[in-house]
Amino acid sequence: MRRSQPAPLSAWRPLNLDDFLLGVPHYPEHVDESYWQRDADRMKAAGFNTVRMGEFAWHLWEPYEGKFDFDLFDRAIEVLGETGINTILCTPTATPPRWLTANYPEVLRVDRNGRRASHGSRQHCDTTSPVLRQHSRRITKAMADHYKDNPYVIGWQTDNELNTTVSESFSDSAALEFRNFLRHKYDTIGDLNFAWGGNFWATAYDHFDQVVLPFPMAPSYLSPGHVQDYHRFLAIATARFQFDQVEILRATNQDWFIFHNLGNLTDIDFRGQFGQDLDFIGFDIYPMLYDEFRRTGGHAATQALQMDVCRSYTGNFIVPEQASGLGSQPSFTTMNPEPGEMRRMALSSVARGADGLMFFRWRPAHFGAEIYWMGIVDHDDVTRRRYEEAKQFASDIHTIKDKLLGTSVHIDLGIAGADFDNQEAHKTYPIGLPSPLEDAIVMHRHCYKRGIACGFVHPEDDLSKLKAFYIPHWVMWNNNWTPKLESYVENGGTLIVGAMTGTRDENNHIIREQAPGASLSKLSGVKVEEFGRLVAKGGEGLFQRSGPEQGMYAPPSPLPSSSSERRYTIDIGGKTITVEHLYELLELSGDTQTIGTWSNRFAKDRPAITSRKVGKGRVIYVGTYLTEELAGSLDELVLSPAGITPLVADLPEGVELSLRTADDRKLLFVLNTLETAAIVPGVPAGTDLLSGRKLDGSLSLEGYGCAVIHLN
């Protein structure tokens, strides 16, 4: 395994490794040593080359303070290595040992209700704690020094799913570190008071030592600027906690690659220091779990969404944990992949940018909070269908990896993503509206169903690769991005600007000019005269999305919608469609055209969606939020004229497409996400690398069947 220097962050950045990481997370500490050699032999027979281990074992690495014991893992690594399996080690800081929390109770997190965490489970310690950071550096240094010359240790994962169980802390150390963060950010307390709007509700401070953490609803709403800065602080604290470890590992062995495995993507700024410190990122994908929690269109569409979001942060990635079977903790149990589906889900991850994948886990635990989280091997140590599917997937990868590595995922329609401030700004003051991601999901789902190459891209990336770029109401607009957008449009790109974009500044203040601000108004030829809320389909009135948990404004029970009859419609492309969530009344400059008009109530005949030609391209402004029907109309009127068409026309329901490309090759992934067979017409000419079939026109796929077509 050879590592090269990573390229700058980009949605199209390839991985900087020369092989595909293929294997499982492995927990030799969970079974008797008599299992180890048999496990290694079966991993090798399956075609695996790597395991990941050690992330929850600090109490074994350091059984009491200053006493390190590497014997168990030394022997496990040796058994695996001699069999041909390399090891990725993890810094074990997600589960500090009991002696640490007993001797230093100040490291424990404190929740928003003032309760101090008890020891146990995971992420019970506060990453803002200087004491925890000291011990984190110490265990990382000891492990790095011990394994620096071990040929079987090829890389490291920092911690485990940082901030997934919990990201907030209201401890004394968090308060102290937050104040120090603010002292560096603001020159004077007056600057902080201005940023947080201290003249509203008498929230001004006399000095930094008075600043409190933003306890929710204590007793009423907080300043959006205060909340935004708190989450900026948490993101920086998380990056610094990780950097402590990265710095030690880099100094110890330059050949090691270093990554982190993402969980819930909370309070981490991936395009900031956190992502720049790493070779690449990993994303733990459990499609059925995420879909049941978030309901984003079925677990196949949810997986595609999660992978595309992940790729927007740093480019190609690995999947350190890919669902292999039923997943469970005491409060939930996911659906179980059907025969063939586990392999299909793994290939979906590869199709959308994974250059390494590990099935979670090698074997299930017999004790603890995940005894029904199944693995490749069953509880009785027998290999059954999941092992055989993992083996088939490994064979797939060995067949395609020479053509796969070095490619990135093709995108025709980019959706603005991966911006920490805009993710957080919405949360601070949602006013009952969908988040930028929720709005983006409508467009992403439409493209997924049609087979359009769609992904998430930050405005600082190379937009010239895109045929169109959609901004889903980013309220915080950085004017430094506008010249890049102007150049993109002038050179033939199509820019689509969503409602409410550019309406707040970096302090979460409403801007003091007509939206969407001077630079975007000039580019789009639009100014917003007025905006207002519309009832969403199935909406329940005022508190549908953003009602407080408690306090003077909380209703005693859900309120029925008193305004459900207030439906607003738009005439666009010869159709009348009902829209939801928001209306804007637009003022247009002389060269801006109307392509969608409000068609009822007081807004009747006012522009709702506009188009302005700029150089070789055009700028579309959408004065409302997306619905499925509106996304379809924009496809016909905007995307298609921009040259965006499905990768395969007439795509059958349930068939997923993705295109990975390099300068000299194109790989089209065609994946059947349903249990029933499908015939895909209009497939481009090429060779299915998995079966060796020559194709030109029609492709038959069995239930959960997969093809990777090397296009002619």
Automatic annotation (TrEMBL):
Keywords: Glycosidase, Hydrolase, Metal-binding, Zinc. Pfam families: Glyco_hydro_42 (PF02449), Glyco_hydro_42C (PF08533), Glyco_hydro_42M (PF08532). Residues 654-709 form the Beta-galactosidase C-terminal domain. Residues 444-536, 565-643 form the Beta-galactosidase trimerisation domain. The keyword Nucleotidyltransferase does not apply. GO terms for cellular component: beta-galactosidase complex. Its EC number is 3.2.1.23. Transmembrane segments: none annotated. InterPro entries: Beta_galactosidase_C, Beta_galactosidase_Trimer, Class_I_gatase-like, GH, Glyco_hydro_42, Glyco_hydro_42_N, Glyco_hydro_b. Residues 27-399 form the Glycoside hydrolase family 42 N-terminal domain. One of its GO terms (molecular function) is beta-galactosidase activity. Gene3D superfamilies: 3.40.50.880, Glycosidases (3.20.20.80), Golgi alpha-mannosidase II (2.60.40.1180). CDD domains: A4_beta-galactosidase_middle_domain. It catalyses: Hydrolysis of terminal non-reducing beta-D-galactose residues in beta-D-galactosides. Residues 545-565 are annotated as: Disordered. Substrate binds at R122, N160. One of its GO terms (biological process) is galactose metabolic process. The active site is at E161, E321. It is an enzyme of class 3 (hydrolase). Belongs to the glycosyl hydrolase 42 family. This is Beta-galactosidase. It comes from Pararhizobium polonicum. The lineage of its organism: Bacteria, Pseudomonadati, Pseudomonadota, Alphaproteobacteria, Hyphomicrobiales.
